Amino acid sequence: MTGVFVCNNSDPSKKTNCKEDLFPSSSYPDAMTETPTLSDVTEDDDVIRRPDISVERALRNAADGVQDLATVKSKSRLVQSEHWHQVYTDPENLSTMEQGGAIFSFVCNHELTNYEASMVDAVINLSAFEDEQAENGVPYFEYAEYEKQRRQIEAEKDRSKRKSEYSNSSSPSSSSSSSLSKHLSKTHPNYTFLLARCSYLLTGFSLDDLLANPQIIATFDYQQSCQPSGTKIWDDFDKMDTDTFRMTKPIIPYIYSFTVQFHVSRVHDPKELQELSRVLHIPVDGVIVLERTKRSKPPKEDATRKIKSVLVYTDLGDGVVLVTHLTILLQVGLPEVIERIIGTIGQWGLGETAETAWRTRHYLQTRLPYASDSFLDANQQELKMVMTEKTVEHKDSLSFDDEDDDFFDAMDDGGAHDVVSGVANLVVN
């Protein structure tokens, strides 16, 4: 691994500000007609512009001390994924963030809309590794190619089924078709895509200082201070690489938790900053990438094929920074019952996001203050109390962690049955 950021999917021929390139017809299959499509994009949607957020109101709310945790949670809101391309033009979203609230949305599906696919492609291959396939054991991914192969498999399956229905014995051609279908199915993973997106404002800290020292995010101090209650941050540093942190988080409290390890790096490639700006429709002043790594050497492939998470920063001035946090996960072998549960955790995710925003504000205001300590609010004692009382309870939950950090490793062993039996009533009722 090197300190130089390398992107695996940079393309200098890409355009940045033309409507034809926003959702290029040649990039994604014709049958992907879910919203948003090109016909749904207005003239303004194609413009990269700074969100119309009032820095004055945001600072006034921070100075008035209204950003305590309870207020942040009450001001936060869920956003439907079909409106992702309009997040920063919706006045209600902007007002939510000005008041200290957070915005959260989540998707768990086997297929993506055009806009979701564009977000995945902009993020999923970002890496600090020179060759992440060889060094980190993860696949290169492009949604258009994946969808093309998936449809080929489905077409071959349908063709084989029709031939078998009208023939008592397999003909050479049907046998060949069946063999091709089996081969494609074996070599082509059937992914479940998990996409999470959240946005919030940070106030009273120096973005320049953070971007100059992105490794701060990998420290135990940062993660322990900024992660929501119930999250365990591991401290066995002798087993971790540089700029790496490891955490266990309950995804279904007291029932199911996951352990994951991330390496932290900063994006320096202007083309990739520009691509994220194009996809999000906002200026991008800095990006930090969190990519899942493993303890096994060499890294062993498991059911969680790839996780990328990016913190995108847009400086609004006077110590106010807009954070757009995107997380992309490619998962195979996820049982339907678990998939259905995960697809309904929006309210839980919103609470986690709101608490993360609140904790991160306090932490950065203290550690990397903007100009002076004049932005520090009156809630430091409350924050200290919450940090002291922060506990991690995992003894009553199922955590399917191993040395390979498999995000959903239970899907590959008998543990999945325990999860299914333990949460089946939640799905039914």
Q: Your description of this structure?
A:
The protein is an alpha+beta fold. The chain has two domains: 54-136 and 192-421, Alpha-D-Glucose-1,6-Bisphosphate, Chain A, domain 4, CATH 3.30.530.20; 143-187. It has 15 helices and twelve strands. The longest helix is centred in the middle third of the chain and has 23 residues, at 143-165. The chain is globular, with a radius of gyration of 23 Å. The relative contact order is 0.16. The model is unreliable at 1-44, 372-407 and 409-429 (pLDDT under 50). Residues 152-165 have a biased composition (Basic and acidic residues).
Record the SSE blueprint.
Elements: E1 6-7, H1 19-22, H2 55-63, H3 69-75, E2 77-78, H4 91-98, E3 103-109, H5 114-123, E4 126-127, H6 132-135, H7 143-165, H8 172-187, E5 192-203, H9 207-212, H10 220-226, E6 232-233, E7 244-252, E8 256-266, H11 270-280, E9 286-293, E10 304-317, E11 320-331, H12 336-342, H13 346-367, H14 380-389, E12 398-399, H15 415-428
Helix pairs in contact: 5-11, 7-8, 12-15
Structure in a nutshell:
The protein is an alpha+beta fold and 429 residues long. Helices cover 37% and strands 19% of the residues. The protein has two domains: 54-136 and 192-421, START domain (Alpha-D-Glucose-1,6-Bisphosphate, Chain A, domain 4), CATH 3.30.530.20; 143-187.
The gross shape turns out to be globular
What is the distance, rounded to the nearest whole angstrom, between the alpha carbons of the first and last residues?
48 Å
CATH class of the largest domain: Alpha Beta
- What fraction of residues sit in β-strands? 15-25%
The helix/strand series, from N terminus to C terminus, equals EHHHEHEHEHHHEHHEEEHEEEHHHEH
Total count of domains:
2
Outline the low-pLDDT stretches. Answer: 1-44, 372-407, 409-429
Please summarize the sheet with the most strands.
10 strands, mixed
CATH architecture of the largest domain: 2-Layer Sandwich
Report the CATH topology name of the largest domain. Answer: Alpha-D-Glucose-1,6-Bisphosphate, Chain A, domain 4
CATH superfamily caption of the largest domain: START domain
How large is the radius of gyration? 23 Å
Mean pLDDT rating: 76
Helix share, percent: 25-40%
How many individual β-strands?
12
Number of helices: 15
Q: Which secondary-structure class do the elements indicate?
A: alpha+beta
